[in-house]
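Example record

The entry below shows one chain as it appears in the dataset: sequence first, then structure tokens.
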Amino acid sequence: MKITLIRHDKESGKEMLTVCDAGVLIEKMKSETKAGYVTGLRTVLPELEGTHAMYEHIDKLPRIYPALEYARTKDGGRKMKQYNGLLQLEVKKLAGLGEADLVKRQAMLLPQTFAAFCGSSGKSVKIWVRFALPDGNLPKREQEAMLFHAHAYRLAVSCYQPLLPFPITLREPSLTQSCRMTLDEQPEYNPAAVSFCLEQPFSMPGEETFRQRRLAEKNPLLRMEPGYETSQTFVMLFESALDKAFRELENWRRGDDLQPLLVHLAEHCYKAGIPEEEVVRQVLIHYHRQSDEQTVRTILHNLYQECKGFGKNISLSKEQQLALQTEEFMKRRYEFRYNTQIAEVEYRERLSFRFRFNPLDKRALNSIALDAQMEGIPLWDRDISRYIYSNRVPVFNPLEDFLYRLPGWDGKDRIRELAATVPCRNPYWTDLFHRWFLNMVSHWRGYDKKYANSVSPLLVGAQGTRKSTFCRSIMPPSERSYYTDSIDFSRKKDAELYLNRFALINIDEFDQVSSTQQGFLKHILQKPVVNMRKPHASAVLEMRRYASFIATSNQKDLLTDPSGSRRFICIEVTGVIDTNRPIDYEQLYAQAMYELEHGERYWFDQEDEKIMMENNREFEQVPPEEQLFFRYFRAAQPDEGEWLSPAEIMEDIQRNSSIPMSVKRVNSFGRILKKQEIPSKHVRSGTLYHVVKLVTA
């Protein structure tokens, strides 16, 4: 079996791909290199935790891809050569090599374990599991392999988790899942591992959870899990117990003998289930000047020895208990976030195969309420809604989250490279697309709230040239839900809301936008913010505009604006766009972020607009009055011709051609003459144009 290793070189920006036998790779893991990169990583990793800093030699450790054997394409990219049928499970956050060895030994109890080794951090274990179809073969096509791999992951987790002493770190199954090159002097390796047998699935697995139902436990302290802030709970319980003690000692005041208060306080704290050490700590915080620590410890210890019924009577009101139970239940079972892009709360279940956040609908609310009631917590849907639509749920902006999680740029120009996949004869296309791309990312970050990204690439070409596919491929897969190619300009309110809801809008079949909608299109292209009232809301809000536009068409004569159509980058697609080339989205957008941070211009200046207007001439519709003008007139030289108004010229054209004349047509005709640079002058009666009448037969 061949395993692929890929390393990115920072200095050259190149990607180095090597393929080696699985057995050879396992042998390489057993010894450290002379440079000691893995050892160095394990040494500095504790210092890097909680920071954004990276190990300086991290690029020296290639990434290992167990699921796929890659091969190079002719253009230097990579493609799937073969699916290996290897699935990687990960157990993270281990204490050290001792726990890692235990996990490896347990994993090897199953004959399907191909390999198990310690991760590069020294605190994780990677488990490689073999899978195959019933006939012993493996899926050949990438799409089939993707479906097979997803179902295999679910089966592997359900089989291995009962054997392992620590939880498997759940990840969305992917063919491109990888790990860093590592060091393990005693890796487990079984080249003769048998394969789990799995039928070829036809769809992705459903969102069913694998977790076991837990017994109901009324005391939230007994259901605490790592990560929950226990200190906050203890403080709440202690303050409630202290309040009860005060009410029982009506005449006690600060400065009085502390012992009577401690007698009552200890009893309430004991019944509330607060550990003795925590009570000592809280008392010393409250009354650090009234008694020494040893006296407090002795009194409380003796009282705790006498009391009975630990945790049987929590000193909280029903409302406090419900609030505490609600928060503990929600944090333990679910993850919530308020998505500002769609203005909705999203959720996913912890310890489940729900890797993606989904909008919270009525069905989900009812399910959460029923799950809580199954655990003995008296929660109703209104209680769930109260929690969800509060500051307990953090705010999340998906675009900003994606952009600020990007790695450093490796220096390779991927934006122009992406533009170059579109075959065309426009020499300025790659530079103009680069400018537009920076403008798009800039608006996602909210750099410019005064001006909108009013320029749109417009791809013109025959059907089947993959124009729409190219437009969709600009968005990274994780953010593709914020892309749309369905916008109806006749529904103006919805179209304006799209400016806030979506990050990239494709005006598909641009030639279908009617002339009456062109004015509204021009309006929203240059609209920097959205001021409107959302459905069921009472106030008009100012909402950020995120959307940039791109467009496609099969027809060439598209542009109707006689002033020049400077809002479009029109190009004629002369061949099939190469959309099969893999895109490194992280580096693509990392380039944009780097250039924006280092002052690269993202707006179009007058020179850019001049280039666009000149190039767009071949895509403009030539109105009949313009065609007829050059049939009956031409621009005059200084010593010839006559000065006529647009109405007079139109009247003459109408007389010769019988074209209907209207006020609207006369008004637009003036702009046509100006665009054609016909000499003009302004007089009291209006603008006159210097023309020569042509003799016609």
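Notes for this example: The two ends are 83 Å apart (CA to CA). The chain has five domains: 2-197, 220-306, 318-396, 406-619, 624-693.
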